[in-house]
Amino acid sequence: MLNRRSCLSAAASLALPSAGGLLPRPAWAGGQLEEPLADSVRTALSAAVSGSAPPELEFASTESRMSYLRWLVGCSDRLVKRKPDAQARREFLQTVWYESKRAGLDVSMVMGLIQVESGFRKYAISSVGARGYMQIMPFWMRLIGDGDAGKLFHMQTNLRFGCVILRHYLDREKGDAYMALGRYNGSRGQPQYPNAVFGAQQRWLIEEPRSV
């Protein structure tokens, strides 16, 4: 079991720079379908993705902070082969946690989705043009962003769009994750994609932090 000292030491080690990087490669996943959005929905989604300030984590107690550090260390250990640079890995995980919680999503599901969608590759591009970690289709920048699809390769922008879009689909499907994930992939009602995400999610079922 990790104690306070080991958590803090391990978390600090994540900030040490190391060699490594990711090159753009095709991704097989990604294919949200463009659908008409009511003005109220478009406005709400636009507001949800506005702002690009880096996440600032605040904790209500030492216990909640330690819970977060246990999650961070556990995920980092499992992600090191895909993201060898320790600082980039820590910043990525911190942002995934922040944006998942901001959207009211299960962090392990978001991690599973990213694993399936892009294999944790920042510059992944699918055969249908979806981009980045969460494979966001460029039309979303026109619908709820500023129209600049190039920004979808920015880490926090991509993760925020992905989490907000998944939250939108979950709300449309009344909390049914199976159907929402299918909609996210453009394959609503088909089992392959949701089952792949649920399977990948199991790898990321680490103790998640309590509310901060």
From TrEMBL:
InterPro entries: Lysozyme-like_dom_sf (IPR023346), TAT_signal (IPR006311), Transglycosylase_SLT_dom_1 (IPR008258). Gene3D superfamilies: 1.10.530.10. It comes from the Bacteria. It holds the Pfam family SLT. Residues 99-191 form the Transglycosylase SLT domain. This is Transglycosylase SLT domain-containing protein. Keywords: Signal. Residues 1-29 form the signal peptide. Belongs to the transglycosylase Slt family.
